[in-house]
Amino acid sequence: MSESAGGTAQKTAGKQAPGKKTGSAGSGARRDTAREQPTATAEPREQPTVEAKAPSTAQVLRSAREAIEELTGLEAETVSSVVRGEDGGWTLHVEVVELRKIPDSVSMLGSYEMTLDPDGELTGYRRLRRYERGKADPR
Q: What is the pLDDT of residue 115?
């Protein structure tokens, strides 16, 4: 009986094996198709990250104020001018409180020129002048 049971088991295994091969080949083909589809849909998702949006003027102003405060350790009072260059970069003039005095009208301010790249990253800065808050420029 073991022979007949073994023979039946082999015949049953033989019948299942072709079914599995056919099923796996069919499902394998489906899996390959399924694998190709996410790859095709993944590419459009990557394109928006490549095309980064340029920062707004307000974002550039905030970034410049934070950068000058971090670099100099001084408080940015105001941004007195903003110019966007032909290359997409930015030039800003930032007024910084360099020395607080009482009364505040005699505090010392510094006017700094800052240059930023088109992405709003600081590329350089320099102090243009130092002046007393209460004194007007001679004209």
A: 97
